[in-house]
Amino acid sequence: MSMYALQVIGGQEVEIMQKLRRKGVDARCPQECRMIRRGGSWQEQLYTLFPSYLFVSTPDVYRVYYAVRNEEGVLHWLGASKGTPEPLSEREEANILWLAGDGPMPPSEAELREDGTLDFTSGPLAHLKELLEKVNRHDRRATVKVPIGGEDKTITLSYRLNGKQEPANTAAAGTPRSGKAADIF
Q1: pLDDT in tens, 90-138
Q2: Is residue 41 one of the residues assigned to a domain?
Q3: Whole-model pTM?
Q4: 128 burial class (0-12, 13-18, 19+ CB within 10 angstroms)?
């Protein structure tokens, strides 16, 4: 069985994936539970790892080509020439299967070492250490490059520090002024 990449309308990946699955097509949309800080606390939000892309597994691409191509929201198959399906390599397929898993990936776990560096102890970032590009410690996100369709695609994954997300400092810059504060403007 081979895996192929589809370009779809952004923001509709999950809906299109569900429509394709109802037609009997094995479609995948890798997602993660991303940690987002809102209102001073950390919350999980579902996030698509490859915006505007879906991945389809099939032993016979010609059997599902038109069912997929005629689905509203599908722009085209990715391949050497636009619209011509080209299977992903075995390594790329393994990466997608691992990232898609049985559902959204949980955030990775990280520990702060004494020298100030991060050590990813579990989750996807622990497995992708060699592909790590940069770490944004403020937003608790790390960027990795994963090969897909012959190109390196940059994806961003979130992490928890020491197994938890500490609340944001309520006395930080940007905190609303109290009602008694003088208005200097």
Answers
A1: 988 988 888 888 888 888 999 988 888 889 998 889 988 888 999 998 8
A2: yes
A3: 0.77
A4: buried
